[in-house]
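Pair request: fold both.
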Amino acid sequence: MPVSPADRTVSSKSTSNCRVTLYNPYGTGPLYCESLFEAYAAIIIMARNDVADMSCQYQVRFGDGDNGVHNFDILVRYKNGLVKLFAVRPSIYVDEKLLAAIEDIRNYVLNQHADECEILTENVITQANVYRAGEILRARSLLNAENCRRMTRTMAGMPGIYQVYELLESFGNLASGWTAMWNLIDQGMLQHDCEDPDNMRLTHASWLKCA
């Protein structure tokens, strides 16, 4: 069922789009995405710590006729009360029509629906970000507080910058250490130390540092 009265039914599967249903950790019903790209965006948002709730396929009317309707792919409610709408598109599909629609919505009707709206492209929805979000969500589901405390103690004995495999070997258990490491990354205690973490997938050879 739609989370909001403005939510619309997801389009049927076709040669140009697919349907992806995601588990919603906020308990307000499944997330229905119309493409894998949208699903990746939802997973990245889901992995944030400041999100209170989210839904998909939110419709905004800003003019007359079919040309006066825009369907945002994701609506996010943040813990600080901010409400944001996201249009998810590969940059090759960000055309003048879309930009004009977003601008009209901002200027005339956005305050009836949300505080902000934004277009998300592959600049944010990178393979590295999707992978990181997936690992964070998996680690949250397997959270072991004692392992996290052990990992924190292990980190205290490491040099300022070290590789993932060094941390896991010092921890003593590769599997539980990997999960604890991602839990601490999720909590902001540990960082991937590289020039562009949004475009660099974290591996056992990657460098880490305390936040």
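--- second member of the pair ---
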Amino acid sequence: MPRLPVPSFAAALCMLAAAFACVAADAPAAAQQTADAAAVDLARGCWIRHAPARPDGRDTVLLRLLPDPERRDWLRGEIARVGDDPDRRLQLWLARDGRRALLSAASVRDPDAPAARVGAAPGPVPMRTPPGAIHPVPDLDPDGLARLLLGGDDRVAFGRSPRRLTAVGGTAGRSAAIDYRAEAGPPLRLRVNAAEERLSITVGGADTGTGAPLAVFAGVRDGCD
């Protein structure tokens, strides 16, 4: 029976170096995934945006972002203004590993399912001109916000942006930023900025007439787990 050739010392060194290179290449990806998951976990909880200028509290906005009972690998919440129609509240889903996110104005059974058309394209978003301003801006009640972001689809799915900006930690307390890009349709960009006591959700690329990112939610922690 012929004997198999024994690798030379040099060949063995090359094989060993290649193995170390694979491990080194995987290390940054694993570290990034860990940071992404920590950033999403930092966004978990109950959040509130108070409206002190409105005694009736109707501009108070709530976001209860907690694990979905049926999809524990996702956080799910509704951006709810006091007095909103529950069927028109914008939903936010965040995959707990940081890989994907979802905005939807309709009930979602499967966050991994593709978007579906909900009928004819919606009409234009109403515009208003703030006092002292020159250019009008969208009048973003919850229905207008959903129409601006979603168009005629029932949802917009986002994938983790290749631009790696996640960081958790710091001398002023834990904070993180994680970016997503729309997987299809208009070039929307979703950013989640989370800290121990503050959370903001913004969307860039929407046609707001100003070019600035659209503040979907910004608030402070309000208890719950």
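Observation on the second member. The longest strand covers residues 74-81.
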